[in-house]
Write a structure and sequence with these properties.
The protein contains 3 helices and no strands. By secondary structure, it is an all-alpha fold. 86% of the residues lie in helices and 0% in strands.
Length: 116
Amino acid sequence: MKREHPFDALWSRGMRGFGTWDEATTRLFDQVLRSRALLEPLATSLSAQWRAKAVLRRLRDASLREAGVATTDDLARAHAATLRVEARLLDLLEAQQRTRRELAALREQLERDPNA
C-alpha cells in the first residue's frame, strides 16, 4: 500500500480551490464581456477616437502638403515605388548575367567547332 505524502492533501485542496476560483472568474468575465451596458459605451468611445484620429491625420497631411513636406503616406508610396524599381533592376541584372553566360558558352562552342 502506497503511503501518501503529508503535502498531498494540502496540494489537492489547493487545486480544488484553484479550480473553483477559475470557474467563478470565467463566469464573471463571460457575464461582463457579454454585457451591453459595458460594450456599447466602449465601442462608441473607440469609434469616436478612431474618427477623431482620422480627422486629425487629414488635417496634418493637408498642412504638411501646403508647407511642401512629404506626408507619411507620400513616403510610403515612394518607398514602395523604390522597392519595385529595385526589384526590376535586379531582374534585369540577372537576365544580363544569364545572357552573358549563354554568349560565353556559344563562343566556346564556336571556338571548339567553327563549323557548328
